[in-house]
Amino acid sequence: MFDDVSDIIIQIRNLSKIYGDGVEIKALDAIDLDIKRGEFIAIVGPSGSGKSTLLHQIGILDTPTSGTILLKGIDITKMSDKQRSKMRNEELGFIFQYHHLLPDFNALENVMMPLLIKGTKRSKAKKMAFELLKEVGLEDRINHRTHQLSGGQNQRVAIARALVNKPSIVIGDEPTGNLDTKKSDSIYELLRRLNKEYNQTFILVTHDERMAAKTDRIIRIVDGKIAEDSKNRKDF
Amino acid sequence: MFELDVATRHIKSRRRQTLFSIIAVSLAVGIIIIFMSMMSGYTSILIDSTTENQAHITIMPKEDEDYIYLYHGLENHIHTLKGVGGVSSYLQNEAALQYKHNAEGVLLYGINPEDEKRVVNRDKYMLAGEFVSIDNPGSRMILGFKLAKNLDVNMGNSVTVQIPGAEPTDFTITGIFQTGTPIDETMAFVNLGRLQDLHGSGDVVTGIGIKIFDVYDAEELANGIDRETGYDAISWMEQNAEILNLMETSESMVYFFYIIIFSISGFGIANVLIMIVMEKVGEIGMLMAMGTSRRSIMLIFLLEAGILGMAGVVIGCVLGYGASLAIASITIPIPPEMYFGMDHLPVVIELKNFISASAFAMVINIVAGVFPARRASKMNPVEAIQSV
Ligand SMILES: Nc1ncnc2c1ncn2[C@@H]1O[C@H](COP(=O)(O)OP(=O)(O)O)[C@@H](O)[C@H]1O
Ligand SMILES: [Mg+2]
Asked: Is A61 left (phi over 0), alpha (psi -120 to 50) or beta?
């Protein structure tokens, strides 16, 4: 019944984000949220409810108007740009609706990029990137560039890239939003498998209730507030 | 260095535009190197011909005196100074030369040819005869070839010299010189002792010419002589101040021109970078999400400016070198008595010109990169990612 506190990887307290000068938009309204290591979470809710805004806050891509976010016990709202970059590089993996692969690099080089940014040796980065591309089933596409790959393949490369640094938290903003049902099913299965394999925390925004139902926990956001936070039964 | 990876890929992805900006920088650097080589050429020709054709330091009489009376002692003193290569005292006098119906005004110099040769290499400019032919107090004369032409005299002819307050005296022409400078038309040499006799003012001179080994020491040495002897010692720089000033002025005008040319090429680089930054907004956002710091983003685009600039500079140096060589090899159809006897455009290829043109170009190119690079580094990652 009671969660082990030491297992909490993300702790959000009283988090608000207000946009706009003149007409204020309260994108996030005093959110409190605890997320545990290894959880596979779906964030759902109507369009414009604040899902992406919340992900950007957790991903240290933006700063809140008020409130605190602790990642692994560290208050990210008080960090310098350098510290934020390092944290993003080492602890966070991002998957967006659009793959955002670098068009001037091939699949392998794209997956190597977070490692190179970290300062990993090229030869080691190459090996690790190849392992992950194998994991997502693209070992025979490593020299392809994005325009030579399908939408689903590009998204798999993006997933490999998000995971290559072994981040403790992977966030996805409608990661299958551009794919058809069949492809998006297989991507979800892939993410789920990776989540089990590496015990990484996954937070995925989706408006696909069918997908959400396959996760451990569904957080519903309406008007910048958490309207529902329910655990799916794992042993069902 | 992933920054370098990203920078080079960006450049490769925009081949045509980057090539264009590289060409712009190359041309700018090349043109400026050609200009600098020519400026160096003119400067060195001017300085060489100036320092070859006149004494490096000239000692003049004290302020309210017409002559240097105790010049032998002064000569001896100057010989003891460090860096002095030759000392030659002279008596200068305005005179009229007459041959048949022709008459010309001249500056008549009385000198000891052996001393004079150690100050200015007069032998080098002799068209006919020997400079040392006036080494004893006979009535012999050496004169400039234009003067000879104007008087219509030749070797062996006798000209009549008229000095105010002295009897007209005949001198035999024993030498004709040609320097390519105005003195060819105005100057004649005779033996110092002979002129002193004619002049009737005793053993005096109107000036002492000094040659020194390093021409750039002239100013300092002249000041020293000034202080020590009380005579007025003038360096060649002081004597040619007008020309040297003119050269400096034109050099600073040329700098203005350099800045304009480099700015144009700098704009070319800025333009390409702005284009790349605009095209890569989403990519920049993703790089930030992957953990690239703002400093690294800045570095990526500065590197791009640096790479483009460097490529342009290298090509420009090669271009400038080749073109300078080509210009130096062109023979110009100018009579040799003009322009200090040059028959080629004066081009001096100097490493320092390549270094300064390259450094100048690189600084401007990097500065051109700063604006786009800052713009990229200041992007909000969320907005950048959502822009696609
Ligand atoms: N950069 C922004 N400037 C102003 N308003 C914004 C900005 N980003 C998001 N919003 C507003 O904040 C609210 C939440 O947006 P968002 O988090 O993107 O919603 P969701 O992802 O749930 O669709 C919306 O009303 C949206 O218009
Ligand atoms: Mg959204």
From this structure: alpha
Stretch B230-237: mean pLDDT: 91
For every residue of chain B, which 3-state class applies, written as one string? CHHHHHHHHHHHHCHHHHHHHHHHHHHHHHHHHHHHHHHHHHHHHHHHHHHHHCCCEEEECCCCCCCECCHHHHHHHHHCCCCEEEEEEEEEEEEEEEECCEEEEEEEEEECHHHHHHHCCHHHHEEEECHHHHCCCCCEEEEEHHHHHHHCCCCCCEEEEECCCCCCEEEEEEEEECCCCCHHHHEEEEEHHHHHHHHCCCCCECEEEEEECCHHHHHHHHHHHHHHHCCEEEEHHHHCHHHHHHHHHHHHHHHHHHHHHHHHHHHHHHHHHHHHHHHCHHHHHHHHHCCCCHHHHHHHHHHHHHHHHHHHHHHHHHHHHHHHHHHHHCECCCCCCCHHHCCECCCCCCHHHHHHHHHHHHHHHHHHHHHHHHHHHCCCHHHHHHCC
CA gap A142, A79 in Å, rounded: 36
Taking alpha carbons only, the member of B121, B114, B66 closest to residue B88 is B114
Alpha helix positions (H), chain A: 51-58, 81-91, 107-118, 122-135, 151-163, 181-198, 209-212
CA atoms of B141 and B166, how far apart (whole Å) = 17
Residue with tokens 């300092």: B220
Reference B283, options A172, A87, A105; nearest CA is A105
Reduce the secondary structure of B150-174 to three states and give it as a string.
Answer: HHCCCCCCEEEEECCCCCCEEEEEE
Provide CB contacts within 8 A for B58, sequence distance 6+.
B207, B208, B209, B210, B233, B234, B239
Question: Distance (Å, rounded) from C-alpha A37 to C-alpha A217?
Answer: 13
The contacts of residue B40 (CB under 8 Å, 6+ apart) are B347, B348, B350, B353
pLDDT per residue as tens digits for the range A117-168: 999 999 999 999 999 999 899 999 999 999 999 999 999 999 999 999 999 9
Residue A109 backbone dihedrals phi, psi, to 5 degrees: -65, -35
For ligand 1, atom 27, which residue shows the shortest CA distance?
Answer: A48
Chain B residues in contact with A56 by the CB 8 A cut-off are 382
How far apart CA B185 and CA A147 sit, in angstroms, is: 81
Residue range A211-235, pLDDT digits in tens: 888 899 999 999 999 999 988 755 4
Instruction: Give the burial class of B242: count Cβ atoms within 10 A of its Cβ; 0-12 exposed, 13-18 middle, 19 or more buried.
Output: exposed
Q: Which of A196, A126, A132 is nearest to A164 (CA)?
A: A132
pLDDT of residue A1: 41
Interface test with A, best of B1, B2, B299, B379 (most A CBs within 10 A): B2
CB contact under 8 A, A94 and B290: yes
What residues flank ligand 1, with Cβ below 6 Å?
Answer: A 19-20, 25, 27, 45, 47-53
Q: What is the pLDDT of residues B111-159, one digit of tens each?
A: 999 999 999 999 989 999 999 999 988 899 999 999 999 999 999 999 9
pLDDT score, position B330: 82
Q: pTM here?
A: 0.80
> Residues in chain A, how many?
236
Q: Compute the nearest-CA separation of B25 from chain A (Å).
A: 25
Nearest CA to ligand 1 atom 2: A19
Nearest CA to ligand 1 atom 6: A19
